[in-house]
Amino acid sequence: MKNMEIVISDSREELGKKAAEKGGKIIRKAILTKGRANIILATGASQFEMLGALVRERIDWSRVTAFHLDEYIGLTQTHPASFRKYLKERFVDLVSPGKFIYVNGETDPDQECMRLGKIISKHPIDVAFVGIGENGHLAFNDPPADFDTEEAYLVVSLDEDCRRQQMGEGWFADIGDVPEKAISMSIRQILKSRTIICTVPDLRKAKAVRNTLEGPVAPAVPASVLQRHKKVWLYLDRESAVLLS
């Protein structure tokens, strides 16, 4: 695909480093040309290595505004699975960005979506760092994803495959502990990003990667919408790329 650069690495560590290096260049260029940069950050096990390398990039983080992709509804910030906790510990506390816009899942969800939408509308995104779920989701837009909504953030229901992935990654002890609803950045809002860097390691993601790249663009495979974006960098390891033709 002409709009997508696919980079396959031999290890998760190499994958994360390459993705962070690419992202760092984009952020520095944005700061150089307009004095600031706006980014989106994802969470989850797939982002460990990328975030670990990104915080070591030589960037004036005081000139960066970062947005949070999604968060569970009703989960406290101190819960081990909280994405606010994840990003505070792995990013915010380490680099002290100029602004970090968290998604608060402990307040009224509809009002929070409105608040976030107003803020991000004033911050054109230079680069979005995202992943792909085992069920093909993009952010918490599980299949069938809403490709049409113009809302920047929305309340979504998490399907069983998504909830089992969260449990399988060790964030929750039991499927019953995984929240059924979340606040997620919408598909259209993600696609407004000038560049998308998608980091997807592990064999368990191989089917989703194949369906994303080699199948039709369809709500049943939410990440397939990346085929429509003008500038995507997809970072895979040997395992996640194993089913590609």
Question: What would the keywords be for this entry?
Answer:
245 residues; alpha/beta; Rossmann fold; seven-stranded parallel beta sheet; three-stranded antiparallel beta sheet; 7 helices; 10 strands; globular
Briefly note the structural class of the backbone.
alpha/beta
Strand ordering within the main sheet: 1-10-9-6-2-3-5
Which range best describes the helical content: under 10%, 10-25%, 25-40%, 40-55%, 55-70% or over 70%?
A: 25-40%
Rg over CA atoms, rounded to whole Å, is 16 Å
The N- and C-terminal alpha carbons lie at a distance of: 13 Å
SSE string, helices as H and strands as E: EHEHEEHEHEEHEHEHE
How many H/I helical runs? 7
Can you give me a brief rundown of this structure?
The protein is of the alpha/beta class and 245 residues long.
Topology (elements, then pairings):
Blueprint: E1 4-9, H1 12-34, E2 37-41, H2 48-54, E3 64-68, E4 70-72, H3 83-95, E5 99-101, H4 109-120, E6 127-130, E7 153-157, H5 160-168, E8 181-185, H6 187-191, E9 195-200, H7 206-214, E10 232-237
Parallel strand pairs: 1-10, 2-3, 2-6, 3-5, 6-9, 9-10
Antiparallel strand pairs: 4-8, 7-8
Helix pairs in contact: 1-2
